[in-house]
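seq:
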Amino acid sequence: MIAKSFARIAVIGFGYWGSKHVRVLGTVPGVDVTVVDPDLDRLADAVSHYPTVRTASHLAAVADDLDAVVIATPPSTHHALAAEALAAGLHVMVEKPLATSVSEAESLVEAAESAGLTLMVGHTFEYNPAVRRLRDIVRSGVLGRILYIDAARLNLGIYQRDVNVIWDLAPHDISIASYVLDAMPISTAVWAWRNVGRGHPDVAYLRLDFPDTHAFIHVSWLNPEKVRRITIVGERQMVVYDDLSDNERIRIYDIGVDPDVTDSEPATGNMPMSYRTGDITSPYLPFSEPLMVEDQHFVQCLRGEAVPDTPGRRGLDVVRVLEATDRALATGSATWVGDDRGVLPGGPGVLDEPDLRRIPAQERRSLPRRSARW
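struct:
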């Protein structure tokens, strides 16, 4: 780690997310920002908005004058750029996803650990105060047993060239669901479809099978409204997190359904149920920009004041799930998230552990292989 208060950080890629990182890092005391982008027009735009930044068209030109990099480029470039930075002895934060394959993500984790460098992944929502409160609510037990999670991340565009809508949008909700549950999914089923153009699927539905519950994720580049919503349904209470809400991003519903245990069914044949309704509460959430929290945390890690809350292995875990969605989409069947060595991402209560959870082959064969029909 860098045992000093000053940090020289390059943001590679001055696009949508890169420009945000430059803005945020420019406000952190003791941070010197360089923008790296092969597009000269983007470099000129960076200087016009942030006159104090240095610029370069390639990392190699400025690597000797840096301590760390933030990579905010298309996903297909993440591995090569991160590997180059690590080889140059630089600490690295990579926007989601960490890489576009498990093998690439593993190589980055191994390279960082071998060199004693920080590797952090930009799972920004794990730094969102609302998501952290959501996790506290689940951990408190007030919801009861979690029956399922439903997530929707929809908007019109932006269509990506190098990844499908799952790899582009679902990392956020995979990250949130696994963070809130403190567990990783063991299998997944996928439906996806390409509606426009000749590129990748632009709408998809995922089912993630966790050890004790399920999560259903809907992602789309082709939707008339922007939606960022997660619903967690518990046996006793339910909670809705709407990231686009101005003043009530979390609402807790004291509501539920209980089977009416009777000796005989009614003549109508309807399932006897009793419905509970109660108060709706919305906890106060102090405002903190998640990207600001994330970037400040990265700087703290560089200065030896913290260890990453979203380390490289966390990014690897999510890439394992994403790669499994590719197999599920290709086969049309529910697919094991682990690999042929029996390696699962994370596991209940071990997200911060350095060792991956290993499952023997006979146990993997016994995992549910449910139909992927919807």
